[in-house]
Amino acid sequence: MVVVGAGAAGLFCALVAARDGARVALVSRSPLDGSASYWAQGGIAAALSADDSPVRHVEDTLVAGRGAAHESAVRVLCDESPDRVRELQALGVRFDADRHGELALGLEGGHSARRIVHAGGSATGRRITRQLAALAATHERIDVFEDTIANALLGQDGRCVGVRARRDGSETTLVARATVLATGGAAALWSRSTNPRGSVGVGLALAHAAGANLADLEFTQFHPTALLLDGDDDGFLITEAIRGEGAKLLDGDGERFVDELAPRDEVALAIEAELARSGERAVRLDLRPVDMTRFPNVAEVLTRNGIDPLTDPAPVAPAAHYTMGGIATDIDGRTSLNGLYAVGECACTGLHGANRLASNSLAECFVLSRRAALAAVGDSHPGSTDAAQAHGLPERPSEETRTALWRHAGLRRDADGLRPLLEDPYPVARLIGAACLAREESRGAHQRSDHPDTDPALDGCHTVVGGDGVARVERWD
């Protein structure tokens, strides 16, 4: 089995598959501690307290998803997330505890109960990926290929049979019964983003080139509280957990203007409206009510930019953060191309609908990557590259592409702005434009100023883009 990507989803998928007896090639374009997951500040959403339940978690996720979340995927996530937290503990991940030694559960926007598990406060991604990477690097059935770029999927008779990869100028072919993409999202395609520069939808581009379906590309979440600065730390994410501990959003007059713990789409749109009203570039996040010793990496970034969280509000504004859409899969990670699986942010089961509930993404990494690993291990095709065709990557997106997506597919979009994206040189940008045009309504993270209302006829519907690049609206069972 080949796993492409060594973030939380890829690492966990590789470990589960190896534990189940598979030989795994783990391909990572960066060192194992350099993935986007390593920088994730959010926690894992799991109904673990006595006054919570998976049923409540399901209800919160469906509400946040704005009528577009795929209920079967939601139920799988919420039912299985508690067990995945316990499994991570068994693997050596140490989560934050209260003074009684019980898991310290945080509160984030859209959740009706405290159910967010953190490790090291806002360093959750770092703690988890560091531990999983150490386990993967020493596992006898996992071969790690660091600083290696998977630049093509190999197809044969309508099936993915492996990948072609490049390292230090030389190429190698990895043949596999099953190939799992865990390459992360595409939010760095927008010029203002919380993501590392490499998060440009590489897995989506590979899958599309090989003919696999993509889904829900119109739904990109804009995080409400990204730092607005002149310098390298512009776009740095201030985790939602800080608002869960009492931080307040203030307008230019020092007044609150939104419920800080409303779902993210609502908070981001409220900030955008306030900025339009005031003419300012940023609103202010008042951190004085928060014990910032719990969030040392946020405090460090603020301090080095001359912001004292004890006295100074932080300037924040929305930034592209998370792609709810991706490679269309079932709840076991299977794509429309035999032999190809996808997990994590590059995958789309419809779980997040039109607006991801905070911290469901890390839960998804572990719940759904485990299911995909077990399904992929059971894939019986032996794999062969005889007469295989390579479906390679396009050129990297330009700054012009990133600017165009921010301008025309940002928090609000319309047909006149979206149509030029259909001619963009980068294929994922073209597909995003097609998906945005196909959904003629406003819902969650997709706000059409020329179609400002939500269309009830589109409840439960998903926008699917096939290998032909045409976007179609479908209802999933």
Notes on the protein architecture:
With 477 residues, the chain is an alpha+beta fold. The chain has helices at residues 8-19, 54-64, 71-90, 124-138, 202-209, 240-244, 264-278, 296-304, 360-377, 399-408, 415-418, 427-438; strands spanning 2-4, 24-27, 44-45, 105-106, 116-117, 142-145, 149-156, 159-167, 170-175, 179-181, 214-215, 220-227, 248-250, 283-286, 314-323, 326-328, 340-342, 347-348, 389-392, 461-465, 471-475. It folds into three domains: 2-217 and 324-392, 3-Layer(bba) Sandwich (FAD/NAD(P)-binding domain); 225-318, Alpha-Beta Complex (Flavocytochrome C3, Chain A, domain 1), CATH 3.90.700; 399-475, Methane Monooxygenase Hydroxylase, Chain G, domain 1. Helices cover 29% and strands 19% of the residues. The strands form five sheets. Strands 6-2-1-10-17 form a five-stranded parallel β-sheet, covered by helices on one side. The protein has a five-stranded mixed β-sheet with strand order 18-16-11-20-21. α1 (8-19) links the parallel β1 (2-4) and β2 (24-27). The protein starts with a strand and ends with a strand. The mean pLDDT is 93.
